[in-house]
Design brief:
The complex is a heterodimer of chains A (246) and B (549). Chain A has helices spanning 40-47, 71-84, 100-110, 116-129, 145-157, 175-190, 202-205, 226-231, 236-243, and strands at residues 2-11, 14-24, 29-33, 55-60, 63-66, 85-88, 163-167, 195-198, 211-216, 219-225. Chain A is α/β, with parallel strands linked by helices and 246 residues long. In chain A, the strands form two sheets. In chain A, strands 6-7-8-3-9-10 form a six-stranded mixed beta sheet, sandwiched between helices. A four-stranded antiparallel beta sheet of chain A has the order 2-1-4-5, with helices on one face. The longest helix of chain A is centred in the C-terminal third of the chain and has 16 residues, at 175-190. The longest helix of chain B has 41 residues, at 505-545. Chain B starts with 12 loop residues before the first helix and ends with a helix. Classes of the chains: A alpha/beta (246), B alpha/beta (549). The A-B interface holds A 48-50, 79, 82-83, 85-87, 89, 91, 93-97, 106-107, 110-112, 141-142, 144-145, 148, 155-156, 159, 171-172 and B 435, 437-438, 440-441, 443-448, 451, 455-456, 459-460, 463, 537, 540-541, 544, 547-549.
């Protein structure tokens, strides 16, 4: 059960998020769409605790992050939340001083304190599943952009997150690579993963996202199944956005 | 030796007076011919006459110039002495620091008056005073200079004007020492002024000793138990130690020697004048009254002065003064030991700097407000004041709060604290060079700030910081040489003392430079290799970030 209620985020004098509420259905993909500056990236950063929320709450299974919690409790909850949420950043932020395998096993070994050999074996399996088994002992900088992205995905998956967040995953990919990524992610969903994908590209989300959330001006304008949102949007603002030529 | 017409040699009084008269006359005629030449130069178009007039003008300038400098040099008697810690010889009057006092100051005034010249003190550094005389910075040395045989090879000496003896001083509560021989048997370190008859004696007798640039530092280190005794000429011992309640003299003064005035080789004429002037102020009692005034009159002086007053020549009085022994094997041994101290100080200081720099850097950029202020004050203090002053403060200032560290430890800690300030700034820059995304990626994997710092940020910034750190280490290595101000026997001090004692500034300088190079070159090479490696890495990173975003 993943529920976001009345999420509000301010920065300086402006409200970046206003009363955003929605659910994420387990084992499904939610696409968040909207123009630049609509608040979708900030929303994603709230979901893994990188931004302090000013009002509202986030429920992820048994972890509840509430803006009213005392500071120390809040920080502790954020740590718990982060263990359940994996993030693939737009610019990936791989660790350049570690090998590909080192990137993947870093958190399981030092955060979860799992035995290194066990984690390494699992890390190699993960790399196999993203097609990078042979690159395990290379450094990230020697890989292509698409390969680096798959390392970042494997790094996030190594923590067994309940929720996987993607920020603009196609921004550095050509159409062919985008299609490959889509089928890779679809495969993870059938294996039971839950994802939230922020993207300005509706084309990428078609056939991947089960639900869509349209955002504008920091507000959640419309939420529904992908087909409904794309073919019969209720709100005129959503209609304008999806009707734009791609 | 070829005698050139150096101005100092012709300063006979009558000759000098005649010259002044001649000079005035010259000025008058010159004024006339100057005007004439200018007129010729202006009015005449004949090139040959113009050239003649020009030549005449140049001649006038030349005559005026040489005339002025010549008269100047003959009027003034420039004498070199070290007034720092120079009591009772010559030192700044505590009541009026612009003014120098001392028995030698008064004596030179009397000598200069007898010679019809105007004395001018040129303050200089004691240990290299012979070399500074040879360089020509002053005409004579009057600074309790002992006519040792090694010095006699380099400079001329006047006849003696004072007979000194050595006095051994220890701490009042020290009952191990009853004579100078006890120091050798117990292997106690004795302090003395560097490059003196006393230091030569200690070296010859095989008593471990430490040379100091001035007596104040030596007696203070004795009080602070950094050394076990001080052997010093009686005048200094009387002025600096006799009244100190925590020190006591051991035995009677021994090892007579004389103070003579030092002159450049070849200045025989000046030497003759000086000798005559010394005889004069001895005969007319001027020197005795000066010495009595300074409480320096004793039997030894009577022995020196009586024959002269009786009308005898007495140019031969001399005492056998130990000359400094020098052989390259011994020199290399001492330099090798000094090099080890240098390495010890450099590595120790670097460890302190590297370890202490990190909390400073983190405190300054990430700590709470008060800590940031504290760290900034620390950094700015150590970067904004000379390391030399810091060392002097640690060495002489801290004992006031009962924290008397030995010299090498003071240098090690002082340089370490100083370089920590510099390292912290390197770290800070390196930490800030890591993109924020690295922190966020670490956080989003569930890492605590500390873990993220230790596992993700620190290793990356270390790679950035390494080349400038190595660079700093090389420069720290050379900075150990400032430890000479607190008399640590490291390479620079060794060079200074050995070269001052032997005059082998050139050869020893080359040897010492070679020592430094041999030790710092591998470091410099390491720095270059790391820098190259970093550059390659950065090139790779640039090519990766060029992927369209």
């Amino acid at each position: 059960m993943i529920r976001i209620e009345n999420l509000t985020k301010r920065a300086g004098g402006t409200q970046i998020l206003r009363d955003v509420s929605f659910d994420v259905v387990p084992q499904s993909v939610l696409g968040i769409i909207g123009a630049s500056g609509s608040g979708k990236t900030t929303l994603l950063r709230c979901l893994n605790g990188l931004e302090r929320i000013d009002a509202g709450s986030i429920d992820l299974d048994d972890v509840r992050l509430d803006s009213n919690l005392p500071e120390s409790d809040y920080r502790q909850r954020v740590r718990l939340l982060r263990r359940k949420v994996g993030t693939v950043f737009q610019h990936l932020h791989l660790f350049p001083h570690l090998t590909v395998l080192g990137n993947i096993i870093e958190a399981p070994v030092h955060v979860l304190r799992l035995p290194r050999r066990e984690v390494e074996a699992e890390g190699l399996e993960l790399l196999e599943s993203v097609g990078l088994r042979q690159a395990a002992h290379r450094f990230p900088e020697s890989l292509s952009g698409g390969e680096q992205q798959r390392v970042a995905i494997a790094r996030a998956l190594a923590m067994h997150p309940n929720l996987l967040l993607f920020d603009e995953p196609t921004s550095a990919l050509d159409p062919k690579r985008s299609a490959e990524l889509r089928s890779l992610l679809r495969g993870f969903v059938t294996r039971g993963h839950t994802m939230v994908i922020v993207s300005h590209s509706i084309g990428f989300l078609v056939g991947l996202a089960d639900y869509l959330l349209y955002m504008e001006g920091g507000q959640a304008i419309e939420y529904g199944e992908t087909n409904t949102i794309l073919n019969s949007p209720q709100d005129s603002r959503t209609r304008d956005f999806v009707a734009q030529p791609k | 030796m070829l005698h050139d017409e150096a101005p100092g040699q012709q300063a006979f009084e009558p000759y000098y007076r005649a010259l002044v008269e001649k000079f005035c006359l010259l000025l008058v005629t010159m004024n006339k011919s100057f005007r004439k030449s200018v007129i010729v130069l202006r009015a005449n178009t004949n090139p040959r006459r113009r050239i003649n007039a020009l030549r005449k003008l140049l001649q006038i300038f030349f005559v005026v110039l040489t005339g002025l400098t010549a008269t100047n040099a003959q009027q003034v008697l420039r004498w070199g002495a070290d007034p720092s810690g120079g009591a009772p010889y010559v030192y700044a009057d505590p009541a009026n620091p612009d003014h120098y006092i001392g028995y030698e100051k008064e004596m030179v005034d009397a000598l200069a008056a007898a010679m019809g010249r105007k004395p001018e003190l040129v303050p200089t550094d004691w240990e290299s005073i012979v070399q500074t005389l040879q360089r020509g910075s002053f005409d004579i040395v009057v600074n309790g200079l002992e006519p040792t045989t090694d010095r006699a090879k380099q400079i001329l000496f006047s006849k003696p004007y004072y007979v000194f003896e050595q006095q051994l001083t220890v701490r009042k509560d020290d009952d191990r020492v009853h004579s100078i021989d006890d120091c050798r048997n117990l292997h106690l370190t004795i302090g003395t002024l560097g490059n003196t008859a006393a230091s030569r004696y200690l070296q010859k007798e095989g008593i471990p000793f430490r040379g100091y640039p001035d007596p104040v530092a030596a007696y203070r280190d004795l009080e602070l138990k950094r050394i076990d005794g001080v052997l010093m000429d009686v005048p200094m011992e009387m002025y600096y130690a006799r009244s100190n309640p925590s020190l006591k003299p051991i035995g009677a003064p021994f090892l007579r020697g004389t103070y003579n005035i030092g002159l450049r080789q070849g200045d025989e004429a000046l030497k003759a004048q000086i000798d005559a002037a010394i005889d004069k102020i001895i005969r007319d009692g001027t020197l005795e009254s000066i010495l009595r005034k300074w409480n320096l009159w004793n039997d030894a002086q009577v022995d020196l002065q009586a024959p002269i007053r009786a009308g005898q020549k007495n140019d031969t009085i001399s005492y056998d003064l130990t000359s400094v022994s020098f052989n390259w094997r011994q020199a290399f041994g001492r330099l090798g030991r000094a090099a080890m101290v240098t390495v010890l100080i450099a590595f120790g200081a670097m460890i302190i700097a590297v370890v202490f720099g990190l909390p400073l850097a983190v405190g300054q950029s990430k700590g709470p407000g008060w800590l940031q202020v504290l760290c900034t004050i620390y950094v700015e203090f150590f970067r904004g004041t000379p390391v030399l002053v810091q060392l002097l403060f640690l060495y002489f200032g801290l004992p006031a709060i009962h924290l008397a560290m030995p010299g090498w430890l003071t240098a090690l800690v002082g340089l370490g604290l100083n370089y920590a300030a510099y390292e912290s700034q390197i770290y800070r820059a390196a930490l800030e060079a890591i993109p924020r995304g690295q922190w966020e990626a670490a956080y989003s994997l569930g890492m605590s700030p500390l873990l993220a710092f230790r596992r993700i940020i620190l290793p990356q910034s270390f790679r950035i910081a390494l080349p400038p750190m190595t660079n700093d280490f090389v420069s720290l290595f050379k900075d150990t040489s400032v430890a000479y101000v607190i008399s640590v026997w490291e390479l620079a001090t060794a060079y200074r003392e050995l070269a001052n004692a032997t005059g082998k500034f050139l050869t020893l300088g080359i040897v010492v430079s070679a020592f430094y190079m041999v030790m710092s070159l591998p470091l410099a090479r390491l720095a270059r290799r790391l820098e190259r490696k970093m550059k390659n890495r950065q090139a790779l990173q640039v090519s990766v970030s060029e992927v369209p975003a």
